[in-house]
Write a structure and sequence with these properties.
The chain is mainly α and 88 residues long. Helix content is 86%, strand content 0%.
């Protein structure tokens, strides 16, 4: 049988390692939260810009916008009707 030598660690060494690991994990979690908040803010800004651009396009071309909404409504209504008829 082979002899295995194990270095004896003191309680202080173990606590120092645990504190170091805790610090690393805490920093990683905080970085992740900050990145998530930045992504959320960027997404909100993009959505607000899209809403503004859409409102501007509708005001600039109201008849074209009405036609697009009418066509989208007809397509959506047809799809819903088709799905409900097939299930019956």
């Amino acid at each position: 049988m082979a002899n295995i030598s194990v270095d004896k660690l003191s309680v202080d060494d173990i606590l120092n390692d645990a504190n170091r690991i805790k610090s690393i994990v805490t920093d990683a979690v905080e970085d992740g939260i900050q990145q998530a908040v930045r992504a959320m803010n960027k997404g909100r800004d993009v959505a607000e810009d899209a809403i503004h651009d859409t409102r501007h396009a509708i005001k600039k071309n109201p008849l074209q916008a009405a036609g697009i909404f009418l066509a989208a409504g007809v397509v959506l209504g047809s799809l819903i009707t088709l799905i409900t008829v097939r299930r019956s």
